[in-house]
From TrEMBL:
It comes from the Bacteria. This is Ornithine cyclodeaminase family protein. It comes from Sinomonas terricola. Pfam families: OCD_Mu_crystall. PANTHER family: KETIMINE REDUCTASE MU-CRYSTALLIN (PTHR13812:SF19). InterPro entries: NAD(P)-bd_dom_sf (IPR036291), ODC_Mu_crystall (IPR003462), ODC_N (IPR023401).
Amino acid sequence: MTATEIAATGLPYFDAAAVRAAAPWTTAVAALERALLDGVDPEEDSPRLFSPAPGGEFLIMPAAGRAYSGVKALTVAPGNPARGLEKIQGVYVLVDSDTLAPLAVMDGTELTAIRTPATTLLAVTHILAAAPGGAGVPDSAPAAPHVLVFGAGVQAFNHVRAAHALLPGSSFAVVGRRSERARELVATLAAEGIAVREGSVAEVPHSDVILCTTSSRTPLFDGALVAPHAVVAAVGQHGLDAREVDATLVRRSDVVVEGRASALREAGDLIPARSAEEWQEVRPANLRDLVRGGFERTPGRPALYCGVGMAWEDLVTAALVYEGGTKQ
């Protein structure tokens, strides 16, 4: 749709249902992977901007691309869940990179709810396929992994949905801070045909994939308990004062980050375990390295993926939604 056509018909708006319909899990993961293979470099991503707001903060995430650019504008209101409202709300504005003319507006909350699990599962599937010493599936990779999910909010729901699509045959258990929320998640997903049961921290040593999708400010479990072959993804928090995993796990793991620069800015899971200077020397693989085969597992070490959320992921997903929606 051209700028002239948009002016004549009004700016298209993609609500939450339209965003979901245009970006099924396998399609969203494939789009992120293709973007990284086609030249997207996470290290060139724009830093996100935080600004105080009444009762919370504004979060602005701009991203530039060859065909499309855009900005996600969110509000973060920590007190909202107690009032029965969403903690994070917002919109995404997609623009044409050549003219900078607005092309579409879409539900930014739903966009986030999709791109975060899609990015996590992109990382997890590639890590599972990374053998010691080279590409391919290692002998220790389970054919039907047991997935343990910490959290019972929107991101926990959608991480289970994404994992169910990307890791067929998996078994799922969820650990919630409040048992009633975990039971609600189990019932909702059961109605969608996804079998999940309520689990516990005691399952950590027996889990192949552990997904941390919480707002916890302190580590969720003892990192020494994680199995040597396991893959852990910590994606629920951002900020240097927040962490879902402990320094023990970080130090004993092969680490993958979304982007090295963004991790140094916001990955509180990593910085306490090693200083910024040490991480610069370690130079962990980022997502681009991972999908291009530049990551190898070390025998006897778990792998940890640490994500804080990046603007290029929003842009890729928004472009997918726009192109899918305007072709219908």
